């Protein structure tokens, strides 16, 4: 959308006549009328005055700056920034792909922008899903596809700066570097203006929070934004109208298909071992692919051999290899929660089963029920535990194994002993109901 049309829209939204805007901005109504109809050229001074009068948050200034710098250059190549991941080896998630398709169709029908936040635990395949879907629908976005890894849960290094990400997007869309404003608010406004009248797809991967993502959201009809995060983006849902898509473990048939596809001919005639290996990996795509690679890399190593190793050595067989993908994925979530929640998580490694109720968790922590409820909800918010019924949580096997390791490495022996004693006392006082 050009400057004049945007000025007219903002003025109408605020219920101002040209004369009232002229009084506020200290420009003549006749000149403002020419600017709105495109027969008058806006200056930065006029744009700033109108922006202030209409409380446009820098949108008009960004549009004027882009117009004056010649941001609508012809010959700029269509951005196509998607990484090559999630190719031929992508298996399953058909229902989730269909849901993303449905969100896109709903946005088209309503004449709005599509914004979807995909959340789930480490290793659930959020990035692969988003990239796979984006490749599948890229042809519907003729003005380009933009991608950024926001590094929200990296173990080392800094998170991506939203302003820097927007700079890259604007440059890809043809805005000269010297035409990009300095403030994050003005950059965000320019990004929205650059997207107006276009059909763009933006994929924001590995977001830390809604605060990091919000400046990069678009408002233009025909555009789409897909976000992935280990954190539930409640703020984006409630405040910005994003749809939420939570993913967890794959369906058993899908996870078995991941293994057989990745392992290849070595998996022939090992149907039962494939089923057992999928269960040991908790049907989580990252663990499944690491397991498949361990089998495929050694011609003499059978699926049944890995199943046996996992049964005796737990997930250390997967997490202690030279790449350590599973360990690093979970570690980056664990290291970013606050210390009380981190201690609660590692103490769960002392629990004998994957499901724990509030009473047992409170016994482990030695804290009141209300405190532990809040701690478990914080862990649930970043998918280090998954809620079942009210007051009951589940730990997928890779998370249980990691919690068991952390409680040995990070919790003092006397604290571990005291937690086990409290848990034992709790179990004796609250035996499970008889069948």
From TrEMBL:
Q: Which Pfam families match?
A: HTH_31
Alphabetical list of Gene3D superfamilies matching this protein: lambda repressor-like DNA-binding domains (1.10.260.40), P-loop containing nucleotide triphosphate hydrolases (3.40.50.300)
Highest taxon of source = Bacteria
Q: Could you tell me which residue ranges the HTH cro/C1-type domain spans?
A: 7-60
Which InterPro entries does the protein's record reference? Cro/C1-type_HTH, Lambda_DNA-bd_dom_sf, P-loop_NTPase
Q: What is this protein called?
A: Helix-turn-helix domain-containing protein
Organism lineage: Bacteria, Bacillati, Actinomycetota, Actinomycetes, Kitasatosporales
